[in-house]
Amino acid sequence: MKYLLKFTGICLAVVTGAQFCNGGAFEDVKSSPFDSGIYQPVQLFNDYTNIYGMRLSLFMTENKDVYGLDAGFVSCARNNYGIQASLVNIANKDNAGLTFGIFNSAGNRLFGGQVGLYNQSGMNFFDKTLRKDCTSRGVQIGWINHVQAIFKGCQLGMANISDSYFSGVQIGFGNFVQNDDNSFEDYDTVATTEAEIKALEKAEAKKADVNPLDKKAGEKKPEAKSTEENKIEYVKTPFTFQLGFLNFNPKGFLPVFPIFNFSW
Questions:
Q1: Which of 54, 63, 97, 99 has the least C-beta neighbours within 10 A?
Q2: For strand 150-162 and strand 166-177, is the pairing parallel, antiparallel, or unpaired?
Q3: Which of 37, 38, 64 has the alpha carbon at shortest distance from 51?
Q4: Can you give the pTM of this predicted structure?
Q5: Rounded Cα gap, residues 192 and 203, in angstroms
Q6: Would you list the domain boundaries of the chain?
């Protein structure tokens, strides 16, 4: 323990010195085997530097991609590959490996395991239509487990929640899956201002525009091919098994059932 404290003290001194000498970071460094910091920009390297090795967050550090061991208080990166062991772990896009903390978030996709009080993946898909192209595969173990994109794997916790298509096993006090045909509708189709309404009307009008390149005058542009064919594989009900006090699944043998529920 004392060696860890000494190491932390040395890192703190180096980072503080870098802040005074270089304005907070070494410039124009694309990759490094180590990084540490108090808060961006009070860290050794800039937030666009890739780390291949180890990162120690004395409070909160930000980097582009992190490969290896990531430990500390608050760790932020675009992509994280390896082991995360901070109180708060945030990957804005993909998280592959094992993550341990109080709050764990994979913005787009998860490949591996999350262990913590609150585990989440897929929150950056504000447009639900984009979710069908990004499938997470892994295990979530925690008090609350929440997935917001296609997920294949297992959730173990007090509350297991899936806002989209879930294929696998949920074990907990309360289990919730959506698994309906509207999981990939766009969040952003509701216009709330006059500018948004005009923009939507303009987009709709484009569908009826005449294509000047058509041989026959006045012939309308051919309508875009329906996406239903591409959607079939996602509309199909996935296998889901739930074990818990209350199990919610609109595609289950009953929408709500205690002890267990399943869909096939």
A1: 54
A2: parallel
A3: 64
A4: 0.74
A5: 16
A6: 22-75, 93-201+231-264
**Dihedral angle over CA of 100, 106, 111, 113, nearest 10:** 20
* CA–CA distance, 39 with 60 (Å, rounded to integer): 5
Structure tokens, 236: 């199909």
Instruction: Tell me the pLDDT tens digit for each residue of 91-126.
Output: 999 999 999 999 999 999 999 999 999 999 998 876
Measured distance between the N- and C-terminal CA atoms of the chain, rounded to whole angstroms = 51
Instruction: Give the burial class of 86: count Cβ atoms within 10 A of its Cβ; 0-12 exposed, 13-18 middle, 19 or more buried.
Output: buried
| Cα-based angle 58, 60, 62 (whole degrees, multiple of 5) | 120
**Which amino acid, one-letter code, is at 230?**
N
- Residue 7: CB atoms within 10 Å: 12
